[in-house]
Amino acid sequence: MEPTLEQQIGRVAGARRILANVGWRAISDIGSKLITLVLYAVIARELGESGFGVFAFGLAFVMLVTTLANFGQDGILTREVARDRRLLSRYFANTLVLKLALALPALALALAVAWSIGMSQETRLVIVFLGLAVVVESLTQTCFAAYQAFEHLSLMPLVVITQRVVTTIPAIIAMVLGAGVVAVAAIYAAGTLVSIWLALLLLFRRIERPRFEVDANSWWPLMRVAAPLGLAGVFTTVLLRVDTAMLAFYKSDAVVGNYSAAYRLFEATLVVGWSVTAAVYPVFSRLTAGSEPPLSLVFERSLKLVLAPTLPLAIGAVVLGDSVVHLVYGSGFDEAASALAYLAPAIVLYPLAQVSSALLIAQDRQGTVAVGYGLVALENVLANLVLIPAFSLQGAAAGASISQALITVPFFLLARQTAGSIDLRRILAGPLLAAALSAAAMIALRGSFGLAVLTGAVLFLGALILFERRFYPEDFGAIAAIVRRRAVA
User: Fold this and answer.
1) Among 438, 287, 412, 410, which Cα is nearest to 355's?
2) Which of 63, 298, 340, 436 is deepest in the core (most CB within 10 A)?
3) What is the model's pTM?
């Protein structure tokens, strides 16, 4: 049955809201990463390998020991508050206090260990400041979870980019004036205090001022429900990091460097999945197969939304990978291009798995997601034991894509079963047709990198727009509406 005019208007408005939130999350992620990259580059140049090593170790150390403070609680807050916004007070205060109750003792224990094993005074002070910074950032993430539940991700860039700027500029000035790594860590910690102040201010003024209702009896049930999300996060980290660690065990630093160069390019594409998932997760949480709009419709559009940009990126990684590597890294990374080609399937598969797993979590199937990621993380380790010795960095890259396929297919099938009937042709037809035309252009013009990229992008966008406008005008209308609104703004 065709949707009524009122339903069509509601669907377009919902799609516009999702697309807007995708954009705001992307701005937050891209902006923060660029500014952080500048900070890290200056730390490395001004403080040298030793200073940068102390900073990097301190940050990794405190993030590891405070893992339980970010063990899925924010995901539960977003899901439950998206369903019933009256629950914000109950979940917000208890999540904040629970995080502090878990993180501060763990941080104190870590400092005691650092002292007992004879770490230098400089390293201990860095751990103190970065430890406090990580705890405060964890509390800020809870504010972001509330933004997400209310679908106000436009507030995230204000907090994240402000925090990065007020950290990076003073830290760079301090290093130029001769400050060391301890001062940089202290400035970093001060920047997180600015971020939590601004995050709370925006929450109170733009969304809602939650009451501070603390109930210690709710902490264990919250941790129990959140545990599968926390485990899924751990297993996802294994999937994204273990291949590099295993490659370093078997191969030379040069091989690891080439693989890391390719992997950083792959990681740059993950912002697509992160942005779309952040926008649709609260929507998935409150919809059902019989709701209006139906869960299946939002799932369809979410899959198309991640498929459309990642398909040409994956094709470009295969066809133009050598040119991309030379442009970004210069000479000396010839093997990185072949590794990037083997990683190309994962460029498409990773966001598809993210959207599918977000739907499952939103529909209370987080245990299934944790088990799935756990099994594939184990498979990835075992596969790398064979692939890396036999095929070096190409084996590690192929193993990453194989693992993403093994996680994407079952998650997609389960999500499809949960959401209800979806139209695969609606999801695939436009992006695949546009990608085929784009691929042909890039292959024909691969000798001229700039022309190949420009022609491939124009052909992809043009074909996709024409196809969607002709066969799926409702989807096209939702995208066109937000573009027009941005243009007017």
Assistant:
1) 412
2) 340
3) 0.81
